[in-house]
Amino acid sequence: MISWDRVNELREEVGEEFAEVVDIFLEEAEEALERIKSETDHSKMAEHVHFLKGCALNIGFEELGVTCQQTERALSDAASPVDHHRIGDLYEKSKAELLEVLSAS
After folding, report:
1. CB atoms near residue 40 (< 10 Å)
2. CA 83, CA 33: separation in Å to the nearest integer?
3. In the 3-class helix/strand/coil scheme, how is the chain assigned residue by residue?
4. Cα distance between residue 15 and residue 10, in whole Å
5. How far is CA 37 from each of CA 44, 86, 93, 94, rounded to the nearest angstrom?
6. Rounded to the nearest 5°, which phi and psi values hold at 82?
7. How far is residue 83 CA from its own chain's centroid?
8. Are 7 and 59 in contact (CB under 8 A)?
9. Distances (CA, A) of 80 to 42, 73, 76
């Protein structure tokens, strides 16, 4: 679900500000999720999903990033429904796992 190699790499790159980077990511990801849930225009939704994909992959939320990538491709077909519940669930599970591990370290 999470690429711990990426998390550790980012932690090394950012240093002391890592917790702040995580907080910013979580805030931006949650805003993107809200936009995805409420958006009805497929092209705008694709933009929100693309943004979330980039954030997810940068922070190490690998499964969420892959799911967003698949969703982004599916959005090219305007008739494809978007399973924002799955995206939201993956985000919440990844977030909980990340925060649990970070609080233990």
Report:
1. 6
2. 11
3. CCCHHHHHHHHHHHHHHHHHHHHHHHHHHHHHHHHHHHCCCHHHHHHHHHHHHHHHHHHCCHHHHHHHHHHHHHCCCCCCCCCHHHHHHHHHHHHHHHHHHHHHC
4. 8
5. 12, 11, 18, 18
6. -105, 125
7. 14
8. yes
9. 9, 10, 8
Are 64 and 90 in contact by the 8 Å Cβ rule? The answer is: yes
CB count in 10 Å sphere of residue 50: 16
User: What is the pLDDT, as a whole number, of residue 78?
Assistant: 65
Amino acid identity, position 21:
V
pLDDT digits (tens), the chain, 105 positions: 999 999 999 999 999 999 999 999 999 999 999 999 998 888 888 899 999 999 999 999 999 999 999 998 888 776 677 788 999 999 999 999 999 998 887
